[in-house]
Amino acid sequence: MDSLVLHDIMVDETKARAIDESSKKSQEMHDKLKKLRKKGKYNEYKELKQQLLSELKETDALGADLAKVSTVNNAIIKETLAIYFEILKQ
What we know:
With about 90 residues, the chain is an all-alpha fold. It has 2 helices and no strands. Helices cover about 95% and strands about 0% of the residues. Helix 1 packs antiparallel against helix 2. The longest helix is centred in the C-terminal third of the chain and has 48 residues. It is rod-shaped. About 0% of the residues are buried.
């Protein structure tokens, strides 16, 4: 059971890092979009906006996976604690 919990937590950490990187990249793209719009470079603005939307969709998908893994982790932890406290009662 320990290895199952650790595996889920490692997957969780990996996806959390990916979301963090994606968020930073999205913020950089958003800042660049503002600059392009101020300069009147609308064709480049449209292309970058499509890239930003694609990046946001990928981040949302990772977030959904992360939530699922967290739910599974919580269920495993609850069961483990229930067993632990049952042993302590005896």
